[in-house]
Amino acid sequence: MNSKSNKLPISFIAESAQIAKDVQISPFVYIGNNVKIGAKTKIQPFVAIFDNCEIGKRVVIGSGTIIGSPGFGYKKVKEKYKRIPHKGKVVIEDDVEIGQNVTIDRAKVNETRVGKGTKIDSLVHIGHNVKIGKNCIIIAQCGIAGSVRLGNNVILAGQVGIKDHTEIGDNAIIYAKSAVFKNVPKNGKYSGIPARPHNQTLKVWAKLFSSV
Questions:
Q1: What is the pLDDT, as a whole number, of residue 5?
Q2: Exposed, middle or buried, 140 (CB in 10 Å: 0-12/13-18/19+)?
Q3: End-to-end CA separation in angstroms for the chain
Q4: Which of 141, 176, 197, 198 lies at a CB distance of 3.0 to 4.6 Å from 157, suitable for a disulfide?
Q5: Spatial contact of 50 and 29, defined as CB atoms under 8 Å apart
Q6: Could you tell me the pTM of the whole model?
Q7: pLDDT at 1 over 50
Q8: pLDDT number for residue 32
């Protein structure tokens, strides 16, 4: 095939979307109705940003990421599950970086929010109505259930899972593969399944391994 005959792949941008100057939009991107995108944001291929979502300035969104899809919510009616409408949005603040194949669900009402300067690795799921503070680090394969609250400067290591409606305080660190079922205080360092203060987990591990 003659390469000169090839056409540049097209992205879809709704007429009502508001795109600032110097935004880089790659091929195969979908931008829905009333989406707002701030200046100098970079959107890689195969990203979808659904209706009413707001993206700040200097945001980087990796390939395959979905922002604003309906959250996972159902109610049982006469032995069948019916989807609960999600009419909220997602707000991504300035200077956030989002890796590849991340999903950030829209809120049932109001908003799901990711705070300024937060960095999100690939393959992370963020559920509906989650609030993430500023300058957080969220490493690959974390799962954050609906209505979780993360403070500022929180670090979630790889494959951490957080139960819905849980609160993680400022500056907390959750170590890899931990399962958080209860609130974590400010400056806490937690690990294990279920997650507990890291020094307690180390003592449990020491007893287990000493008996082997």
A1: 40
A2: middle
A3: 65
A4: 176
A5: no
A6: 0.91
A7: no
A8: 97
- The residue assigned the tokens 């609030």 is 131
Active site residues: 128
Q: Got the DSSP string for the chain?
A: --GGGPPPP--EE-TT-EE-TT-EE-TT-EE-TT-EE-TT-EE-TT-EE-TT-EE-TT-EE-TT-EEEEPP--EEEETTEEEEPP---EEEE-TT-EE-TT-EEEPPSSSEEEE-TT-EE-SS-EE-TT-EE-TT-EE-TT-EE-TT-EE-TT-EE-TT-EE-TT-EE-TT-EE-TT-EE-S-B-TT-EEETTTTEEHHHHHHHHHHHHHT-
Closest by alpha carbon to 167, among 181, 140, 148?
Answer: 148
Q: Which tokens hold the place of 153?
A: 């400067």
The token pair that represents 81 in the structure block: 């599950």
The C-alpha angle with vertex 43 and arms to 140 and 9, in degrees rounded to 5, equals 120
CB 172 within 8 A of CB 188: yes
Percentage with pLDDT > 90 across the chain = 86
